[in-house]
Design goal:
This protein is mainly beta. It has a single domain, classed as Beta Barrel (Cathepsin D, subunit A, domain 1). Helices cover 8% and strands 53% of the residues. The strands form 2 sheets. A 7-stranded mixed β-sheet has the order 1-2-7-3-6-5-4.
Length: 125
């Protein structure tokens, strides 16, 4: 599993983001959800994040900019995600499904993201 930290710009605001290939889903803290379109799920969803089980019935469309590229993906809204190794609050946890969707690969040994597979267009069959 790899983890890389970067800012994602959401509605003009820089949000501290953890890219974690060990997390399936993407999550946003409620402070970020206020910048996004949100909706209620039909039933609560439970997830274990940062050593705690959390429950939410709210999802959001996360739209933002990462290294100059547009991203748009579904995210689950939680009160808070936790802090990184430096004690900085994580505002977005970007999971494996969204990384696959946007062609983002982690290069942990260099602590960087590989955006070379970012899709300029989607070809659907």
């Amino acid at each position: 599993m790899g983890r890389i930290r970067r800012n994602v710009k959401v509605d003009g605001r820089q949000c501290w983001t953890l890219f974690d290939s060990g997390a399936r889903n993407t999550y946003v803290a409620s402070s970020v959800a206020g910048l996004l379109s949100t909706y209620k799920a039909a039933r609560p969803i439970r997830s274990a994040i940062g050593g705690r089980v959390r429950e939410t019935d709210t999802a959001a469309m996360l739209e933002g900019e990462l290294e100059g590229r547009h991203i748009l993906t579904q995210a689950l809204v939680v009160d808070e995600i936790g802090t990184d190794e430096d004690g900085r609050p994580i505002e977005i946890l970007f999971g494996a499904l969204a990384m696959q969707q946007w062609g983002i690969r982690l290069i942990p040994e260099e602590e960087r993201l590989d955006m070379s597979h970012y899709p300029e267009e989607f070809i659907e069959y």
